[in-house]
Amino acid sequence: RMGAERNFAAGGITRPFTPAFIHGRHIIDTYLALQRFDWAKGELTSYGLKAAARAYGIAVDDRVELPRDQMGRLYREETELVRTYARHDIMETARLAELVAPTEFYQTQMVPDSYGSAAVTGAGEKINSLLVRAYLAAGHAVPLPQPPRSYAGGYTDIREVGVLRNVVKADVESLYPSIMLTDKIAPASDSLGVFLPALAELTQRRLAAKSRVKSAEGTERHYWDGMQNSFKVLINSFYGYLGAAGFHFNDSAAAGRVTERGRALVQQIAADMDARGAKVIEIDTDGVYFVPPEGVEGEESEQQFVESIGEGLPSGIRLAFDGRYRAMVSLKTKNYVLQHYSGKVVYKGASLRSRSDERFGREFLEAAIDLLLKGEPESIAKLYEDGLDVILNHQVPIEKLSRRERVTEKTFSSSARQRLATAATGVAVGDFVNVYERSDGTLGLLEDYTPGSENTFHYMEKLHRFASRLKEAVGDQFDRFVPRPTPLGLPHKHQGTLDLFGEG
To answer: Beta strands 345-348 and 432-437: pairing type?
Structure first.
């Protein structure tokens, strides 16, 4: 049977979904479990089965892929091919479940909740149930939640933008949990002293899982990395629990003491790095990206430098070497690109890679970032000009211009979403539609597309906005390389000649 709609929690976000129930069984939706598994690292660009299987190296060999909109016809004409496709789906789903589902399974051994419920319940609710269970077991009264009060959060700062080479990251392992354990910061209402022992146990489990990552490879490494990140989210939620509303043992004053101590520690780390000749790039709550000082070359030397900085921290606060990178494209706080020495590129931040972005924009950003990493920012001008030309000449497949939208109750009740409501007339709430902007400014469904009907000026302007996300990295030359388009493309194409490179 189907239950009432509820929210699924993945880190700091929630999404509505409708749960299903089978008597005597626990139902785990691997699509939802995958989102929680990836939340802490944010490495996946798609939560589709096939994309995730490829990203994690668990895809079936000789994977059959078929267009969904032709499945009925294909099944009638090539039945065995469709059956093979379905078997591959099942095999990859099973492999994905082995990777993403165990975390909540083991959490049910600690949290008084069912497996199916634990897979969608937020970390704060789990912590609350742990504490309430301990109090009920002791026959002790449970305190009422306190009204939340505002307090200052963590320290973030960006000091360098652009393309930086030979970058290292250092972070304080479990900063807020470590502060709570070291300074013994707990809710004032925790008269039985349950909060800190529970936090200590989970912290040890996270450190144990993290150590397994270092010696594991392939799928096993993904498993332990996901596990330690899951524990990280859970133990970090002890701090969030303190400042949240509605939980029985919340305490905003205690949460404020944690962040105050955290700000002082991370600023001390950055100051020590500055004093020793390092170039601090970004500070984000519990970590610092930096370029090591002259004379610090190679991984061993970089680790020693981080250890020397950590020696100045209080007992119980451990600064760890958390990675080294060939290059970093620094844009703004929490938005950057990292290039590993292996060549792998990792995007961080919604301004660089968002699942709501149209494919043509994502592809442009990837190509432009590749040019930045190669040290060829001037080549972005040609990339941009070519991008405008193909849009203007209707040469971009409409699938790359369209975007996927979920139809919700607000779609039909919000004046701000009137265009989508018109396009989605007759579509059920909860379903998804692919839409594009037509030349008259309305939205049309992808399946109703008429060749040449897209709003070329809209998409050229949108390409400019995509490019503008890299403005900090390109620097002072950005406006020359990426001028605003007109309805006919670049200004110089119909208003005389624009000298992009100042060559006369």
So the answer is: unpaired
d(CA 475, CA 241): 41
Handedness of CA 461, 467, 468, 469 (dihedral sign): positive
> Under DSSP, is residue 491 helix (H, G, I), strand (E, B) or coil?
helix
| Whether the predicted pLDDT of 305 surpasses 50 | yes
Q: Which tokens hold the place of 36?
A: 């929680």
321 with 210: CB under 8 angstroms? Answer: no
Ranges 88-97, 107-116, 226-235: which has the least confidence = 226-235
Q: Whole-angstrom Cα distance, residue 292 to residue 279?
A: 7
Give me the chain's average pLDDT, please. Answer: 90
Q: What is the pLDDT of residues 429-450, one digit of tens each?
A: 878 889 999 999 999 999 999 9
C-alpha to C-alpha distance for 334 and 447, rounded to whole angstroms: 37
Taking the C-alpha atoms of 145, 148, 151 and 154 in order, what is their torsion angle to the nearest 10 degrees? Answer: 70
pLDDT tens per residue across span 51-109? 899 988 899 999 998 887 788 888 899 999 999 999 999 999 999 998 888 878 877 87
Distance CA 336, CA 367 (A): 15
**Residue 335, token pair as written in the block:** 């938005």
Contacts 24+ apart (CB under 8 A), 496-500: 500/381
Element (H, E) at 9: strand 6-10
Contacts of 299 (CB under 8 A, 6+ apart): 324
How is 282-350 classified by DSSP, letter by letter?
Answer: EEETTEEEEEPPTT--SHHHHHHHHHHHHTTSPTT--EEEEEEEEEEEEEETTEEEEE-TTS-EEEEST
Question: Residue 148: pLDDT above 90?
Answer: no
Secondary element (H or E) of residue 409: helix 409-413
Instruction: List the single range of 139-143, 176-180, 205-209 with lowest mean pLDDT.
Output: 205-209
Phi, psi angle pair for 284, to nearest 5°: -140, 85
Type of residue at 193 = G
